[in-house]
TrEMBL record:
It holds the Pfam family SnoaL_2. Residues 5-116 form the SnoaL-like domain. It comes from the Bacteria. InterPro entries: NTF2-like_dom_sf, SnoaL-like. This is SnoaL-like domain-containing protein. Transmembrane segments: none annotated.
Length: 122
């Protein structure tokens, strides 16, 4: 599990969507729970791919650094520091070149040697 998480985060940091998808179960469930934007939930690898490709376009760079990791039998919790630079203006308040710095937690579930659920809290 630790190897899968580290490989996923390395692909994420490289903005390598194909590398991320290779590690996901076909029936993956992804949730992003934000204290400012609410909850986004998607089901399936195709929907995840669409979201991931759109997300890559938003940033000129992005990095998740692991602060701590707790592993269970088929689950894991990872505390991360997230840093990113916007590639495009998102609003009057969020402009290209602005940086984001967020601390968050990601919960992973695994099935058949793949990531079957990923829930990000920020």
């Amino acid at each position: 599990m630790k190897d899968l998480i580290e490989a996923y985060l390395a692909a994420y940091n490289r903005m390598d969507v194909i590398g991320m998808l290779d590690l996901l179960h076909d029936d993956v469930v992804f949730e992003n729970v934000s204290n400012t934007d609410g909850v986004l939930t998607i089901h399936g690898k195709a929907a995840f791919a669409e979201l991931a490709h759109r997300s890559v376009e938003l940033f000129s760079e992005r990095t998740q650094l692991v602060r701590s990791m707790v592993l269970g039998d088929d689950v894991a919790a990872v505390e991360v520091d997230y840093h990113a630079t916007l590639a495009h203006d998102l609003s009057d308040a969020k402009k290209a070149g602005d940086t984001l710095a967020i601390r968050g937690v990601s919960f992973f579930r695994f099935k058949d040697g793949k990531i079957s659920q990923l829930t990000d809290y920020s």
